[in-house]
Amino acid sequence: MCQKAYGGLFSAWVEFPPSGLRFTKGEPKLYRSSEWLQRGVCSTCGSPLVVIYDEDPAPVILIGSLDHPDDWPLTQNGWWGHAYVDEKVSWHVISDDMPQFALNYPEIPEDRSWPF
Q1: What are the CA-CA distances from residue 42 to residues 12, 19, 23, 81, 96 (Å)?
Q2: Helix (H, G, I), strand (E, B), or coil: what is residue 11?
Q3: DSSP 100
Q4: DSSP letter, residue 108
Q5: How many CA atoms lie within 13 A of 90 on its CB side?
Q6: Per residue in 12-59, pLDDT tens?
Q7: pTM for this predicted structure
Q8: What secondary structure does DSSP assign to 72-97, as a single string?
């Protein structure tokens, strides 16, 4: 589903605490893409921006949509990794040492500490 929603083979995102995100140029237009989440796109151009899970108020933001994406490197000290690797295209090789998950990430505890 994510490959089709983003129009790409994978996406890079960062999860913010619910009170730690502010949109500076309008609000995203939300639509329900599945039974458990909504996706938000730019109301002007339609670029994908955010994913909001029904059971978790922490917004997931696509790193490429941020003003300064270089400020969010994928490092080992965050909730980073490769999810749904069983569904990736066969010719894409994951060559870093980040964790890999066949499906989604393991359950993330509600009392998690944020990496920033």
Answers
A1: 17, 20, 11, 26, 31
A2: coil
A3: B
A4: P
A5: 0
A6: 888 888 787 888 888 999 999 889 889 999 999 998 999 888 888 788
A7: 0.72
A8: S---TTSS--B--GGGS-TT----S-
